[in-house]
Amino acid sequence: MKSYEILPLKNKDIPKKVKDLLTEDLKNYIIMKDGHIITRKLDDSFNNVTIMSYEEALPDMIHVFLDTEYVNDNQDDAYEYNIENVNSGLLIHVPRNTYIENNLHVFYISEDIDLVQNTRIVLEENSELKYFEYLTNVNDASIKFVKNTILKENEKIQ
After folding, report:
1. For the chain, what are the domain ranges?
2. Judging by DSSP bridges, how do beta strands 29-33 and 99-110 pair with one another?
3. Do residues 109 and 18 lie in contact, with contact meaning Cβ atoms separated by under 8 Å?
4. Which of 87, 38, 48, 43 is nearest to 65 (CA)?
5. Measured between alpha carbons, how far is 142 from 110 in angstroms, rounded to an integer?
6. 3-class DSSP assignment, residue 148
7. What is the rounded distance in angstroms from the CA atom of residue 151 to the CA atom of residue 32?
8. pLDDT tens by residue, 85-136
9. Could you give the C-alpha distances from 68 to 11, 64, 81, in angstroms and in order?
């Protein structure tokens, strides 16, 4: 059975090793901590892009993560484990004919929980996205990370 459990966030503090990367030159970023988006800094080029955590998707949009054409057809035991035990998720959906020139940086921080993260990136026809991810843990927590990238026709992800 596909389910999820979003655990409460203990604090919104950004660890120093992540803060040190947040320079003035870094324009577009999201910081996720223990399954929650705690910071979102995006310019206008992302206005038509859907960027949503599991927490934001509940209850009406969770099917986008779990039960739509945005789910890969090939599902093995590891994939099923990560869907069944996920406690953190991020959906990035770039609509058709959308070119995002600027980079998107996503920082995934595990501090108080063992993170089972599922990131789903969907690029519709003739769309483009430049995506960078950073994973870090603050304490003795682990991160199990699955990223599904669904690409339609004539799209590009870097």
Report:
1. 16-157
2. parallel
3. yes
4. 87
5. 7
6. strand
7. 24
8. 777 788 888 888 999 999 999 999 988 887 777 788 888 888 999 999 998 8
9. 33, 6, 18
3-state SS, residue 88: strand
Neighbours of 44 (CB within 10 A): 7
- 3-state SS, residue 111: coil
Encoding tokens for residue 51?
């960027």
For 9, 59, 134, 143, the CA distances from 55, given in Å and listed in that order, are: 11, 8, 20, 18
Q: What is the pTM of this model?
A: 0.82
34-65 pLDDT per residue, tens? 889 999 999 999 999 989 887 777 666 656 55
> How far is 11 from 112, CA to CA, in rounded Å?
10
Residue 86 neighbours by CB distance under 10 Å: 23
pLDDT at 73: 59
